[in-house]
Amino acid sequence: MSILLTGGVGYIGSHAAVTLAQIGHKVVLYDNLSNSRADVVSRLARILGHAPVLIEGDVRDTELLAQTLRTYSVSAVMHFAGLKAVGESVAQPLAYYDNNVTGTQCLVRAMRRCGVRKLVFSSSATVYGEPQYLPLDEKHPTHAVNPYGRSKLHVEEMLSDLAVSDADWRIACLRYFNPVGAHSSGLIGEDPNGTPNNLMPYIAQVATGRRDRLSVFGGDYDTPDGTGVRDYIHVTDLADGHLAALNFLGRDDAAGWHAFNLGTGTGHSVLEVIQAFERASGMNVPYEIVARRPGDVASSYASSDKARQILGWQAGVRLDEMCISAWRWQQHCAQL
Ligand code: NAD
Ligand code: UFG
């Protein structure tokens, strides 16, 4: 099957490209390279033995999208392209609505025009806002608390409306928890520009000595050790979840709109992640506990029962292995 991956050069899209290509799907990457580098394609070629097609373009360019869908006889789309930094979304909300909401609108227009109606969308656990109960299941009320989260929620609602309007659409919104780690080759991984916002890349940079110490945001949460608890999921497990969603969309009962959590179901505290990274790397990760980060919740972890039951998918990689792969990637990355 020929599959278009918008944002396919980015962190999660590039891992999904490997998973899909390795079982014989033809992948077409479509990316404006605003948060990624074209050399990822040559790294993918080293992993796969062939280079996937890259179309350099923006998801808001409906014409180029339609042309790409036709040229490569695409039958399904995975939509990773978008902006994802919470803080930046507060400072530049219009950029987030434009890229994430308008971008998706342009994409589904192009798809409709070309008769492509299978879509897997990168959503986020952020759509749940402050948890009212744990683990978070898909029935938990949605309430986004920042422009990034609201842009994801708007897209989910737009896609749900679209599926109601036309029974031919098959749409899976995958609500990722905290993706971390890298491909076992160490050739692709998460490579944030500037100071990392997220925990794992920050710890990795402290371990290499690129940064002095980690600031642990809050030590007085109502959690076993007082630090924030999250559901970290390895990026290759996440990639497998996309394949499972794609297979599901091919089934007779898959018409309409569906939301699935992709997490492990296990929460780990910041201190547990630091300790696991120290074990994985053999390095010291100095840290200090500082004030809470505004907008953070104490704990967030998934119930992925729905994905297990309907998609037949379950995460398998454990925290230690996530850290080992992140460290391997960090060392490769640092050597470049
Ligand atoms: P990423 O920034 O590494 O990848 C996104 C890719 O999309 C980049 O290659 C970027 O160049 C491209 N892109 C951005 N805007 C575009 C546009 N207008 N047109 C074409 N290409 C564009 O991010 P990622 O971590 O791989 O995330 C992928 C998706 O998953 C995003 O939609 C993100 O919101 C979502 N998500 C990520 C996380 C996470 O923690 N990484 C968690 C939940 C959801
Ligand atoms: N943390 C620190 N120090 C840091 C960075 C993070 O202590 O330098 C802590 C946070 O306070 C939190 C935990 O580490 O307790 C995880 O923080 P991340 O920033 O890595 O992840 P978040 O859970 O805050 O958010 C991530 C993405 C969001 C997405 C959400 C759910 O950044 O975009 O997961 O998928 F919405």
Automatic annotation (TrEMBL):
Enzymatic reactions: UDP-alpha-D-glucose = UDP-alpha-D-galactose
UniProt KW Isomerase keyword: yes
Annotated family: Belongs to the NAD(P)-dependent epimerase/dehydratase family.
This enzyme's EC code(s): 5.1.3.2
PANTHER family recorded: UDP-GLUCOSE 4-EPIMERASE
Single GO term (MF): UDP-glucose 4-epimerase activity
GO-annotated cellular components: cytosol
Domain of life: Bacteria
Subunit structure, interactors included: Homodimer.
A biological process from GO: galactose metabolic process
InterPro entries membership: Epimerase_deHydtase, NAD(P)-bd_dom_sf, UDP_G4E
Pfam families: Epimerase
Co-factor requirement: NAD(+)
Gene3D superfamilies: NAD(P)-binding Rossmann-like Domain, UDP-galactose 4-epimerase, domain 1
Keyword Isomerase: yes
Residues annotated as domain NAD-dependent epimerase/dehydratase: 3-250
Keywords of this entry: Carbohydrate metabolism, Galactose metabolism, Isomerase, NAD
Biochemical pathway: Carbohydrate metabolism; galactose metabolism
Class of the enzyme per the UniProt entry, highest EC level: isomerase
Protein name: UDP-glucose 4-epimerase
